[in-house]
Amino acid sequence: MTTKPSPQARQRIVAGAADMISRRGLSATSVRELAKFARAPLGSTYHYFPQGKQQLATEAVRYTGETVSAALRAELQAAGPTAGLRAFLDLWRDIVIRTDFHAGCPVLAVAIEEPPGDEIPAALTAAAEVFDAWEALLADSLRAHGAGPEQAAQLATLIVAAVEGTVAMCRAKRSTQPLDRTAEQLQALVLNAINS
After folding, report:
1. CA distance 19 to 167
2. Which end of the chain is more exposed for a tag (fewer CB within 10 A), N or C?
3. Measured between alpha carbons, how far is 94 from 96 in angstroms, rounded to an integer?
C-alpha cells in the first residue's frame, strides 16, 4: 500500500528548510539535518525533493519570498508605502527577536554563498527573483503614491538592500538598534519621496 503525498508534509519541510537556512546558511545545512529539523522522515524528504538540497533550498527561498510578499502587498495596498515599509521592518524585527538573533533572511543566506561550481544554481536565481519581487512591490506603491518612476525604483532597491543588511547587523550585534536606526532613515526617505 502506498501513501498519498501530503501537501502539508511537503510544506512543513520547505518551511523548516527556510528556517534552518536562515540560521545556518546553505552550505552548513544538509538534507538529513533539514529533514530532522522539519521532523520529517529522510525518505519523504527525498521523495518530495528528488534533486536534493538545491531543489529544497530553491523552494525554501521561494516560500520565504511569497510569504514576505503577501504580507508586504497587503500592507502596501491597505495603507501605502509608509505602512508597507513599517510592516517589512516589523517582520524582520519579529524574526530576529523571536529567534534570539539566531535567524535572519534565508534569501540573503542563499544569495551570499559561493555557488558550487561554474553554474548558477536555481536557489541563487530564485533569490534574485525574490529580491526583484520585493523591490517591484515597493516601487509600485511608491509610484502610486507620488514618487517619480526612477526615484521609486532606486528607493525600493535601497529599502530591500538596507533591510537585508540591517538584519545581518542585528544578528551580529544581538541588538535591534541597527534596525531602529535604519527604519527612521528609510521612513524619512519614503515620506520625502511621496510628499515632494
Report:
1. 15
2. N
3. 6
